[in-house]
């Protein structure tokens, strides 16, 4: 990461157009540097530092059964579609929808759409830490599709194909347990 020079603090003149412009340019430079550094973007501690408040608010809303996708949208803009933190949070949303299979068709539609997005994004994932979510994600997606009356043939066929290839598709771990365990360090100290 290149050196980032923010303007030095001053007792007076903090709101001058020059200082504001200089600080704004420095902050943009910082964000560009962060966005360019894959190791930093994927660091759970750094992501927690930037998004802990939003994650806690999301969890509060989730506890009230108000599923919040704003944190996911924010992470998705800052990260890539298949970055570990984005995929984990997307899986968390699917897991929460799955845990509380929603009653209304609008909620079920949103749940199925979120699950379908997660499955699409997982198609090219090679990270072993993330791949352990794949079968539980497929199983949760299958349940959500069944609950909403959507076609499940493609998911069943995919699970059967994985089983033929020797993958244990009867995974006892729930998607929720797996993701929450991995995201827990981000939520410590709330």
From TrEMBL:
One of its GO terms (molecular function) is lipid binding. It is found in: Early endosome membrane. PANTHER family: LD12265P (PTHR20939:SF11), SORTING NEXIN 20, 21 (PTHR20939). Gene3D superfamilies: Phox-like domain. Signal peptide: none annotated. One of its GO terms (biological process) is protein transport. Keywords: Endosome, Lipid-binding, Membrane, Protein transport, Transport. It is a peripheral membrane protein. This is PX domain-containing protein. It comes from Ranatra chinensis. GO terms for cellular component: early endosome membrane. Its main location: membrane. Residues 5-52 form the PX domain.
